[in-house]
């Protein structure tokens, strides 16, 4: 029982790392768009290092394929939404369709990963 609780806490921490790496990815991508002087790039490089730190931590706890798929999907979704809401780009039905496909794919990966976690925990009992 203690082992499975420890494993669950570890997995939850992994998902927090995925959230943090995804957030910092969006921060440095936003920086690419708004940097106007050389010293802005110092902050952008710093955010990239923080981003990859959390990406590494997430991959130590969760399956790397799942982490990367979610990281890339959130980055794609977030970048698309930034373009529309911050930089006044247009959005069309095609973009919305593929954004929905991404969201469904990420949700499917999370459900598949949760199923695998449950099977592992049942095997420990």
Provide a compact summary of the structure.
It is built from four helices and no strands. The protein has 125 residues and is mostly helical.
What would your notes on this structure say?
With 125 residues, the chain is mostly helical. It has one domain (2-124). 87% of the residues lie in helices and 0% in strands. The chain is built from four helices and no strands. The protein has helices at 2-34, 40-61, 64-85, 93-124. The longest helix is centred in the N-terminal third of the chain and has 33 residues, at 2-34. The radius of gyration is 17 Å and the shape is flat. The protein starts with a helix and ends with a helix. The relative contact order is 0.14. The mean pLDDT is 87.
Q: Low-confidence parts lasting 5 or more residues at pLDDT below 50?
A: none
- The rough form would be described as flat
Helix and strand sequence: HHHH
Task: Please compute the radius of gyration using only Cα atoms.
Answer: 17 Å
Mean pLDDT: 87
What's the total number of strands? Answer: 0
Count of folded domains: 1
Please estimate the helix content.
over 70%
The major β-sheet equals: none
Strand content: under 5%
Topology:
Layout: H1 2-34, H2 40-61, H3 64-85, H4 93-124
Q: What descriptors fit this protein?
A:
mainly alpha, 4 helices, flat, 125 residues
